[in-house]
Every structure is written in structure tokens, then in C-alpha cells.
Amino acid sequence: MSKFIDYLKTRSFRNNVLAAIITVVVLLLIAFFSLRYYTKHGEGLNVPMVKGLTFEQAVIKLEEAGLKYEVDSVYIMDQPPGIVIDQDPDPNTFVKDNRTIYLTINAGKTPNTKFPDIEFKSLREAQAIIESSRLKLGDTTYKADVSRDVVLQASFGGQPIKVGQIIPVGSRIDLILGDGRGSEEVDIPQLVGLTMDEAKFSLKGSNLVLGTILYEGPITDSANAIIIKQDPMLVDSLTKVSIGTHINITLSNKQQP
């Protein structure tokens, strides 16, 4: 043990230790500078702003900066065609030279879409379907129909359009909707011989209103009282009345001959 301690105190040991330390330091320096050279540490550039430029302008700017590019396209109705609408990496990002910049260009040609099925859909539902198909809701007009705010017909450019028809994205679709009132005039129902409950049901189905209720003779059983007269009456000269017309009735417990 004493011999080993004596060896540690010799010049030879100190020289060996110093040589080992120098070797390690030299190896670390070689590795460090080699890595810097390989990765070009400290060398690079900021990505230029090309968003909003035309594709041609963006290409010139990227090539001058020593950057490559790849292109994808989408269609946005409110943006001019051929404009860079997005870039990756973002502007002023520090990158190595020869880095690929990914550009998204607004397509120059309007794409087409198939017209969806919106017939007999509610206005709210039809609007959602139209917008999801990248179309726009145009004018809405109403037509007499028992259905309210329901699509009866769709048109494009003044012409009726069918499901599956090919039209440009962004087209305006005009709709004809039901007004919920049906025809302006309806047939007068025959109420004579019906009870009041039966008459109410018939009038509701015809969009008419029960008017004045008169009675003839003593009414001992109102539930089974029969209508013996109505005004207006269904006759050859009068078969239709306006929607909402009040129909007056006369009830009686007497059986009509």
C-alpha cells in the first residue's frame, strides 16, 4: 500500500494524469466543434412573411431567402384566387436554410357541389343544410300552404333546382316556403246533423272558426244536441269561404225529419 502511495507522488503518475485530462478535453472539443459544423449552429434565417401575397410573389421571396416550398390549396369564397392564405412555419420563425415552407393557396377556380335534399324541411333545418354544403341562403317567399316555414321549392338563378344538381360553391339558393294558411279559400263543411264537438273538429280541419251558437227548443242533453242550421250554409251558389270565416250554428235536441 505504501508503494502505491509513493507511486501517486511520482512525476510519472502526474504526467499520465495530465495526459489523460488533455486527451479528454481534446476529444470533447473535437466533438463539440464537429457538431456545430454538422448542424451549422448559429446559422439560419427568419422565415419571410408571404401570407397575403400572390403565389408568384411568395415563390420569389422564398427562393431569394434560400427556402424550399410545398403547396396545398383550399377554396375560400371571400378571398381572391391565387393568394397565400396560410404558411407554416409562421413568419419570423428562425429556421435553417433550405427548409421547406408549406403554403396554402386559395384556389383560383370555384369548385362545384351537389345540391342537397331540403324539400319539406323546416327553414332552420334547410338553412343549416345549405350552409354545410357551402351554399348561401338567398331570398325567401311564401306560398299558400298548410305547412308553415317549410320548404316547398328551391331555385337557383330563377330556375327550380333538383337534388343532386351540380352548382358552384357559394351559390345563392332562393326558397319558397309555406305560409301555414293553406289555400285562401276552403270548402264549406256540412255541419248539419253533427254534434257541437264533431263540428269543432270539422271546422278546425278546414281552418274555420266556430261562431255564434244558437239553440232551438229546450236543450236537455247538450252533449247530444244536433246542429240543425248553419250559417253560411253549403248551397250550390256558395261552396267556399275564406280561411278563418266564422260559422254560426243552431243546436237542438229535436230530431229533424
TrEMBL record:
What CDD domains is this protein classified in?
A: PASTA_pknB
Give the Pfam families listed for this entry: PASTA
Which keywords are on file for this protein? Kinase, Membrane, Serine/threonine-protein kinase, Transferase, Transmembrane, Transmembrane helix
Question: Which domain of life does the protein's organism represent?
Answer: Bacteria
GO MF annotation terms = protein serine/threonine kinase activity
> Which regions span the lipid bilayer?
17-39
This protein's record includes keyword Nucleus: no
Task: Extract the Gene3D superfamilies matched here.
Answer: 3.30.10.20
InterPro entries attached here? Answer: PASTA_dom
Q: Where is the PASTA domain?
A: 41-107, 182-253
* Name of the molecule in the record: Serine/threonine protein kinase
User: What is the organism lineage in this UniProt record?
Assistant: Bacteria, Pseudomonadati, Bacteroidota, Sphingobacteriia, Sphingobacteriales
